[in-house]
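Q: Predict the assembly, please.
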Amino acid sequence: MTALSDACILAASEDARIWTMARKYTMTDTELPVAVPRQILRSRRDNSFGYFVRRRYFLLFLALPAFVYVMIVGVGPLARGAWYSLFDYNLQRPARTRFAGLDNYITVFTDQSSLLAIYNTFLFTIVGVTVQLILGFGIALLLWRDDRFNRTCLAFLLIPATITPLVVGLIFKGLLGADYGMVGHLLANAGIGPEGGLLSDGRTALWVLIAIDCWEWTPLMALILLAGLKALPVDVLEAARADGATATQRFARIILPLMLPSVFLALILRVMDAFRVFDTVFVTTGGGPGDATQTLMLLAVKEGLSFFNIGYASAIGNVTIAFIAIMASILVLAVRRTDVRING
Amino acid sequence: MNAAATQLIARRVLLVAITVVFLLPVAWLISTAYKPSSQIFSIPPRLGFTPTLEQFRSVFSYFHVWSLLKSSLIISGGSVILSLLLGVPAGYSLARSRSRLASLCAYFFLAIRMVPAVAALIPFYMVMRDIGLLGTWWAVIIINTMLNCAFVTWMMFSYFRSLPPELEEAAMTDGCTQMGAFLKVAVPSARSGMIASALFCIMFSWNDFLYPMFLTRLDTKPLSVALLTAYGTKDITWGTLGALAHFSTVPIVLMALFLNRYFVQGATNGVQ
Amino acid sequence: MSTLHSASRLTAIAAIGTTLVSLTFSAAWAQDKPLSGVTLTLASQNDQFGAVLANLAPKFKEATGAELKVEIMDYGQLLTKTTADYLGDTKGYDLVTMDIVWAGAYSENRYSVDLTDWVARDAAELELDDIYPVILESLGQYNGRYVAFPFAAYANVLAYRKDLFDAAGLKAPADMEEFVADAKKLTDPSKKQYGFVANGQLGPAVAQDWMQYNSQLGGSILGADGKPALNSEANVNSLAVYKQLFAEAAPPGAIEYDWGGREESFRQGLAAMMQTWSVGAPGYSDPSISKVVGKTGIALAPVAKGVKQTYGVGGWGLAVNADIDDKQKEAAWTFIKWLVSKPIHKEFNLMGAGSFMRRSQMTDPELLAKFDFLPVIAETYEHGNGEYRPRIPQYPEIQDILGKAVNSVLAGAAEPKAALDQAQAAAEKLF
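A: Predicted assembly structure:
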């Protein structure tokens, strides 16, 4: 049995990718690596009712711990927080707690700071992720060929993504200061940008933050997209090239549609993280000047952890979750629809 | 020189330029750790400086660096191990399940990542207080595991889905139990996916500071929280910050550099 | 053979016996220390005194046997974590450094132990009359009761570049009008020289600095009734002056400075004048971090003509967590008494804490030799005002509101009157 499984594993780890491609794009029956008679397999599956039941229980048993854990540790506190959001509840003044219904949510959508925070967060996410997608795709294309140079480049490029976001914010705060910062000083001397440095003016600060986010996460996008590129069926591309398709045509008609799953993965991961940005903004501008770089997370943390307005902070948190869920659903629908349209 | 070679060189030059752009800010931070305090923020800023180790000395006198490192390691390590233990079986189970709910469940786990940290923080803080785990590493490990295992589940779900089930079925035909098939066939072949998930989890736990800031005390404080303190409000202590950032950044960077190919492999199969 | 064996055995027994006896004796000796076995956890701001407190811990252990653990945090973390500790009743900290402006919150929410009776009881030990009254009142008391005991007092003084003033034939400004004029005169961007620097950064930094200038220009945050009067005419005027100073006399990056930033710019020689807390003064003479050694002077902070001559006082007090058990409370109070006692507090300052608060320290020759600006501080305390930043419970929110308003005026995004009107509306909602 061991020899069998070893052979299976060996074959599997080397051929898994190819099998997947084969399954997906050529629609042929999969081949087993060893000659196990199909009849035996089929009979085992079809005839044994007990097998199905046992299988189901086994799978349930495997999945249950994670599910229960997440429910208790995650969903529990979240539900409690959601309950609090219906109250005007400040931990420092517990005597003044009163049921407020949807008041907190109404405040989220009517308070000036809050509205600006919503606008900023959306702008930050949409612009940032789009730019990261385009740049990341470009870098992935550059890195497509698998050689040592490219691998080393990728390894170094990933460094910004591994640095603590807090530190990233501090680096740019230090670089962009008009008096001390190397970059800021150059810009101020050349007369480019606002006098106090790029981070000090409400009109430029948010764009700088978006740029910082791109600096930090574009390599990760490139990584995910590169993985997708490497999984593309080589034969299809070769055929296209042999047929005389230009690079642009190959890109638009073949690569892009086939990359849909990677793009989707990259987008959804980044959208979820970019919408909840906190560390970098907290440390560079703190939401300022004024409310120019206020984001939903900053607002929630300030309200919840500086003023202990638990009710309001929970409301902001729930609104954030709702927004992300909406965006994720839009992404899923868009990808599904494009997938259907392209791949039939 | 033919077109292909020119193209290759052009591509490589572009790549080097891009890499340099991405690495310059990092280089600046690293350099502040070796500058004497008076030269870090000279006006106007200068590139040259006299290297010194005084920042490292002051970091060691100001912080218990080894205690911080130990805390970071314990928190990240603990949460990764637990997340893998919980997440890999769950991901496998969802991938192999024929139920229509399976996909939905997997996306539910992914959705856990949508949750802003602050939303669960205060209720969780109060629960930890009631249990008496406040100030210990366990409090942070528990909440980090929750977030990480959700992510691991989803990643392993995608990964296992790309591995043909025939392998395990062949093993089971041959007399292996279901658990045996899982442990001896499925898990080893998912090694690269597991490593990739583990890397993502470590990156998250190591760099997270909001939860540890609240849930740890002086003895159990990790590096990420200490970094915030290093950036004080009364003095620009960029030197100590740069030095401390070394300890916070270098382990993760090294890990990423050496285990780079697992990142790619893991992401490959996560894409299917 | 056997005699040797038994002899060595006897020696062994004797040795063990002596060791045991001496151990017991030393243990008993250690038990003589009043607080042995006690551990005190202190949450400290990362001001200069933080490191000094940590360094004094072994001395405290020697004196009382108690272990002192100092956790140093930045302002935001300190406030958040200690408040969470009080609210959650988690008894994480026995002692907390309390900023002067938190006194109202501490009093109303009963975070800390009411020390009034203990202070009265131990007044002689504390040598209360040696401490300036303004410090006792503003750093320790709220509504007459002690919510904390002062240990680190700061005086708001004017730091200026004697060399630049001499070169321009000017003397240190005697009032705010001269201050503004001198700042403009000494500004020469081409030489990277600016007349003035202050905090511009959003949040507590700009709020606190502006409140200082505001009070010197005759404004006030609270009205006569104790309710916020943020958009009073005097406040609007002083905000306009602050903005003018920033536009015409401050380094371009000042709008992003917090305390560290402005101290650094003064130490780098960028600015000619800066109002600051006295705790930063020793830094200017430190060649390892300062480029203006020997060129600086410390003077009294000026007020506008017609405004009552008072000077800003700030700083930190030590509060005892109300949730901990009585034995810990006693131990904490013992620490406070030990720290503020004349000899220890003097050493505290000699080690660099910059927290002078006793009259005796102002004339002490050893301290004067190291810190020649003590007479200025003494004068500041004699006519000190610690209330210009209202120490009411709603202070953090008001500070946040003001921080945003002032910063947006400095950034040119709003006019002083409009910004303060908006701030007033937000502040009124808190009451």
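The two ends of chain C are 94 Å apart (CA to CA). The interface with chain B takes residues 41, 45-48, 51, 69, 71-77, 80-81, 84, 88-90, 92, 192, 204-205, 258-261, 263-265, 268-270, 280, 288-291 of chain C (CB under 8 Å).
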